[in-house]
């Protein structure tokens, strides 16, 4: 039987209509209730998640109603661990994809970390909202290793996470995160860069001077709104 991610049943232009925000934005879903597997919804659109967490930073980014934030091991509600930038992972339990909409658009590149230990998956970058318009890029995601016994993974099967990204031309307004439900996890979703993670800090002038001078489905029990992970053989 396949192991699954979840342990329970249970993304207006800033300048003009043809100009995207060039700021590197990395989402780690840390402000959402990952223990209770909260839907992301409008958390990054100046609103809240499904359980009222937020508001998050208003990036003009929203997610479809099957995109879930989930906490990892040790003690988290998903069968995963070792998130490279901390926070919560993103996954979905229904449908064949979850969708991120970016009303102001983004360009240059798109990147993230992922784990898919049983089934391959995919990510598609579109010029229109809700997976419409021109297909600007597709990333085919191969299956990844599983190392729950490592210290970093702390018992989580969907671990380690693998970095991947793509450069593209044009302005994108949505992304589909696709594959088999409950079988692929995403982390550090990054816009305007083909390398995942937060944008590197720019040293202050004084710092430069110093540098010149001298890195399956689930079975579980609910308890205090926490859903405990269950490993399947």
Automatic annotation (TrEMBL):
Protein's name according to its UniProt entry: Ice-binding protein C-terminal domain-containing protein
Q: Which InterPro entries match?
A: Ice-binding_C
Identify the species of origin. Answer: Sphingobium lignivorans
Membrane-spanning parts: none
Tell me which positions the record assigns to the signal sequence.
1-22
Residues annotated as coiled-coil are none
Matching Pfam families: PEP-CTERM
What's in the keyword line of the UniProt record?
A: Signal
Superkingdom classification of source: Bacteria
The Ice-binding protein C-terminal domain extends over 201-225
């Amino acid at each position: 039987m396949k192991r699954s991610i979840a342990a329970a049943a249970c993304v207006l232009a800033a300048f003009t209509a043809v100009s995207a925000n060039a700021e590197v934005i990395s989402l780690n879903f840390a402000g959402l209730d990952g223990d209770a597997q909260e839907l992301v919804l409008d958390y990054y659109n100046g609103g809240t998640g499904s359980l009222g967490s937020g508001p998050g930073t208003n990036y003009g980014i929203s997610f479809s109603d099957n995109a879930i934030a989930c906490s990892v091991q040790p003690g988290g509600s998903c069968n995963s661990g070792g998130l490279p930038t901390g926070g919560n992972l993103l996954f979905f339990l229904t449908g064949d994809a979850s969708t991120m909409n970016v009303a102001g658009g983004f360009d240059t590149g798109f990147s993230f970390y992922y784990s898919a230990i049983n089934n391959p998956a995919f990510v598609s970058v579109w010029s229109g909202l809700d997976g419409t318009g021109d297909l600007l890029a597709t990333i085919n995601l191969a299956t990844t290793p599983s190392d729950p016994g490592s210290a970093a993974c702390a018992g989580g099967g969907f671990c380690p996470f693998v970095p991947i990204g793509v450069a593209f031309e044009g302005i994108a307004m949505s992304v589909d995160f696709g594959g088999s439900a409950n079988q692929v996890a995403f982390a550090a979703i990054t816009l305007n860069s083909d390398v995942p993670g937060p944008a590197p800090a720019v040293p202050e002038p004084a710092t430069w001077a110093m540098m010149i001078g001298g890195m399956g489905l689930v079975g579980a029990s609910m308890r205090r709104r926490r859903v405990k992970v269950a490993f399947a053989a």
